[in-house]
Request: fold
Amino acid sequence: MNFPKEDEFIDYEGKKRHFTYQVNKTAIGCTVYATEKVENGYEFSGYSPTDPFDILGELRSKIKKRLSTKYLQEQNGEFSFSHDQAIGHISSGGVVIDGKFIPFDDLSNMMQTYEGFTFNLKITE
Reply:
């Protein structure tokens, strides 16, 4: 199989982000993982019941879409949500948003600015 091992995408700041691909084949299909080549960076995945190439275009589109939106803003060394929402992934001890690791304590502090508001927590694969 001549599946790509790496890819490069441009984020919301014009910064190049480098990703590696890993294909996990099982009896019921295959999952393609795209992981940024930095510690605690972006992570994406896609599933195809037949062939990893079937999901590659969709996975690349997902990466481009996520990289085009900035969910965090930083002021005086502290992060806040720039759109009252965020998309990222859960990591050990925190979350990764915009390719930045946010410890759970810092995430809690960010959310305290919304005291009294309601929220919708949705965890997806």
